[in-house]
Amino acid sequence: MFTGKGGVGKTSVAASTAVTLAEMGYKTLILSTDAAHSLSDALDVSVGSVLRNISDNLYAQEVSVIDSVNTHWEDLKEFLAGLFSFQGLDYISSEELATLPGFDEASELLYVDEYVRSGEYDVIVMDSAPTGESLKLLSFPEAMSWYMEKFFPIGRTTAKIVRPIVKPFTKIPLPSDKVFESMESLYLNLKEVRNHLTDPEMTSIRLVCTPDRMSLNETKRAYTYLLLYGYPVDSLIVNKIFESETGEFFRQWRLSQDSILKEIDQAFSSLTISRINLTRREPTGMKNLAELGKGLYGDLDPSRPLPSETPVQYTKINGKHVVRVRLPFADKKRVNLYNRGGELVIELDNWRRVFFLPQTLSGKKPASAEFNNGYLDIEMS
Ligand SMILES: Nc1ncnc2c1ncn2[C@@H]1O[C@H](COP(=O)(O)OP(=O)(O)OP(=O)(O)O)[C@@H](O)[C@H]1O
Ligand SMILES: [Mg+2]
């Protein structure tokens, strides 16, 4: 999965990776989860919301939330339609339902889950939306699990939804068994897709950036948030680097890129870093993308996961239980930590992760916390 700031080249790099993989003989699917799809433009073929074969070994789809509502959520749609008309509102259309919060994220993740489950493809490449949207997507399964566990008493281990107790005199229509079943399967599928996406042997999250200050700063934050949510980020691709012969006009830019490239190497020394030059023409179409891929990967296999940092460790330091979270570029002043009903909550900027602690730590509360070399060590007692 490729993510990064707007316009840095995520779609171009994702598409060139997919073209490279397909040429290597892997049956490859490239999925765009950015609502502002530009995969068709990058590949220079029409992609569309229905999965299609676009060349040897290469399949593509631009996920559409409206299509997904129609295929994945018939039951829920019926229920909500009933609920809306009970409230005196008109029938709700798929288009309207698709604009409700969470549907976008859930649709995209359900497609990933479906394709992983099908076992049809050797590699799935995800071209995602700019950082904020991608983080919303990746934090969604946990947020949704939390929400569903609060609203419906779903046991964490049994995952069986018990009907909420509704006062007998209420006239609000109760969801049918079918609705409960569809919510239960949604819950389980989201859990599963999160397990896949956080498994470093199965998933690589790759950051794309350009050598400028704003992109570097955003990449540092994105990397930290991704670790907070437990995702395996294994590399950083620096795109649009000027060649050494820039001519007079771009000389200052080239110098500034040089100094930022040095900073990037230092800041991200724990990741594999690769570089792509600014090409003389826009790298669109399969041929140009294959070329871009050659420069980027050489003889390396893009499907192979590279070493990534362990986001969270449950360890013992001096005989004390410690939750150690890797947050390399977090501003201490912007971290909040608290315990809420047996759950450990870490907030960083606008992002919040609720940690469901392992059995050995259940009942323990954060006693103290400190930053050590980019790790937040939380002592639990
Ligand atoms: N190495 C490169 N050299 C020259 N142009 C490039 C390079 N990489 C990408 N581009 C061009 O930069 C523009 C933005 O690229 P792209 O759409 O891949 O970025 P993105 O990060 O996916 O953008 P968005 O945030 O809108 O999804 C496109 O016109 C693309 O062709
Ligand atoms: Mg894009």
Choose one word for the global shape: globular
Under CATH, the topology of the largest domain can be stated as Rossmann fold
Strand neighbour order, sheet with most strands:
1-6-7-8
The molecules bound to the chains, other than polymers, are:
adenosine-5'-triphosphate, magnesium ion
Number of strands: 15
| Unreliable segments of 5+ consecutive residues | 155-159
Q: SSE order in H/E notation?
A: EHEHEEHHHHEHHEHEHEHEEEEEEE
Classified by CATH, the class of the largest domain is Alpha Beta
Estimate percent helicity: 25-40%
Approximately how much beta-strand content do the residues carry? Answer: 15-25%
Largest sheet: 4 strands, parallel
Which features would summarize this protein structure in a list?
Immunoglobulin-like, Rossmann fold, binds magnesium ion, 381 residues, 11 helices, 15 strands, binds adenosine-5'-triphosphate, four-stranded parallel β-sheet, four-stranded mixed β-sheet, alpha/beta, 2 domains
Short recap of the structure:
With 381 residues, this protein is α/β, with parallel strands linked by helices. Helix content is 39%, strand content 22%. The protein has a four-stranded parallel beta sheet with strand order 1-6-7-8, sandwiched between helices.
Task: Explain what this protein looks like in three dimensions.
With 381 residues, the chain is α/β, with parallel strands linked by helices. It folds into 2 domains: 1-308, Rossmann fold (3-Layer(aba) Sandwich), CATH 3.40.50; 312-380, Sandwich (Immunoglobulin-like). It is 39% helix and 22% strand. The chain has a 4-stranded parallel beta sheet with strand order 1-6-7-8, sandwiched between helices. Helix 6 crosses helix 7, helix 6 crosses helix 8 and helix 7 (131-151) runs parallel beside helix 9. The relative contact order is 0.13. Bound molecules: adenosine-5'-triphosphate and magnesium ion. Residues 6-12, 34, 38, 42, 130, 239-240, 276, 278-279, 282-284 line the site of adenosine-5'-triphosphate.
